[in-house]
Design goal:
The chain contains two helices and twelve strands, in the order E-E-E-E-E-E-H-E-E-E-H-E-E-E. By secondary structure, the chain is mainly β. The N terminus is likely disordered.
Length: 164
């Protein structure tokens, strides 16, 4: 059954949950939408990771996200601040927390953002407990005061990785 427009669309694909964004692109709101479409892990050599990483090794995470809608170009031109926050959740009796954040601003004329703007270098030992972890990314848009997010957020949940 197809997901209805205007509802948070959750789509299972390749073992990852695409939680889209709010307001969702393609929803009944044609004025502005945001979407997060990937969460990638890169091994210490910079290549795509096999998702099995030694805790003594550093690694990188990145995401792809985009703006769309009637006001998207206008908002991008305002150099809108955004924060990409990466989280980990230990599966089983393993801790959870934040891997780190990347803070930037939108660029005039640019509606799609990827590794060049969203990559986080995760130092060796950040995930220090052996086990399985699920990663999540949230793209938010802080306002004044900076601790209050704008009512627009994009999410992506997955992949699962093993730390040894």
């Amino acid at each position: 059954m197809a997901a209805s427009k205007g509802v948070l669309e959750i789509i299972l694909r390749l073992g990852e949950w695409d939680m889209s964004g709010q307001p969702a692109i393609g929803s009944v709101n044609n004025f502005i939408g945001v979407d997060c479409t990937a969460l990638d892990v890169f091994d210490p050599s910079g290549g795509p990771s096999n998702l099995i990483i030694n805790k003594a090794d550093a690694f990188q995470v990145s995401t792809d996200w985009r703006l769309a809608g009637t006001f998207a170009q206008f908002l991008a031109a305002q150099r809108l601040p955004y924060v990409v926050t990466y989280y980990y959740e230990g599966l089983g009796n393993i801790p959870e927390g934040e891997l780190g954040r990347v803070s930037r601003q939108t660029d005039p004329g640019k509606l799609q953002y990827g590794p060049a703007e969203t990559t986080l270098n995760v130092p060796a030992g950040t995930l220090s407990v052996d086990g399985t972890y699920k990663l999540t990314v949230v793209v938010s848009f802080p306002t004044n005061p900076p601790t209050v997010p704008a009512p627009m957020t994009a999410f992506f949940d997955g992949p699962v990785m093993e730390i040894f």
